[in-house]
Fold this sequence. Notes:
- The complex is a heterodimer.
- By secondary structure, chain A is mainly beta.
- Helices cover 0% and strands 53% of the residues of chain A.
- Chain A has no helices and 11 strands.
- Chain A has strands spanning 4-7, 10-13, 19-25, 31-37, 43-51, 54-57, 65-70, 73-78, 87-94, 106-107, 111-115.
- In chain A, strands 2, 4, 5, 6, 9, 10 and 11 form a 7-stranded mixed β-sheet that branches. Chain A has a 4-stranded antiparallel β-sheet with strand order 1-3-8-7, with no helix packed on it.
- In chain B, the strands form 2 sheets. Chain B has a 5-stranded mixed β-sheet, with no helix packed on it. A 4-stranded antiparallel β-sheet of chain B has the order 2-7-6-5, with no helix packed on it.
- The interface between A and B is medium-sized, with 29 and 29 residues.
Amino acid sequence: DADVTQTPRNRITKTGKRIMLECSQTKGHDRMYWYRQDPGLGLRLIYYSFDVKDINKGEISDGYSVSRQAQAKFSLSLESAIPNQTALYFCATSDALIGSGANVLTFGAGSRLTVL
Amino acid sequence: DAKTTQPTSMDCAEGRAANLPCNHSTISGNEYVYWYRQIHSQGPQYIIHGLKNNETNEMASLIITEDRKSSTLILPHATLRDTAVYYCIVRVVRLIDAGGTSYGKLTFGQGTILTVHP
Lengths: 116, 118
């Protein structure tokens, strides 16, 4: 089984629908992240969480919300999806170790979302 | 964080060493160099990181120049499965976890598309 599991892997939805992308991890890491990737734009950070009680906005949080249900689970919601949220979404985790290893991220396989 | 510059694309013959350069001329003393790769539409994969000294692991070697303004990722014996986009990232690491705001907020640029040919 993968260390970081994302569901669904692919989803097509319509404008205005509510969508939830889920992420679970078996790494035992405290820190979890949601990124989106658009062609030619690299990965951009949406939200991140350093523990169950901690949620932080990233570069592009507008139109998104998150929930950290447990140490191992971090979900991303689009309350009312719009076409420009069509993208590849990645969940990632990292350890809370102080030092250079804290920037070592483990990524999930991605969730491809299409909003029509 | 320091900006990085990488070539847009590179080719390499299977079995040969792939040397991927990265320029980070504005790097500061407390910034590490990280390398990740992303195989088509898969999640990025961590490869290696370093500060000053050259580093080697089971995947690759990282050579950092003495002035730390550039580095090279070396895949010693490239295979077809190494075809991917390679990202060079420079990131500060704080010695004390003061809320951890620096961690994990890696900025992925355009990277280098490495194509390994048979």
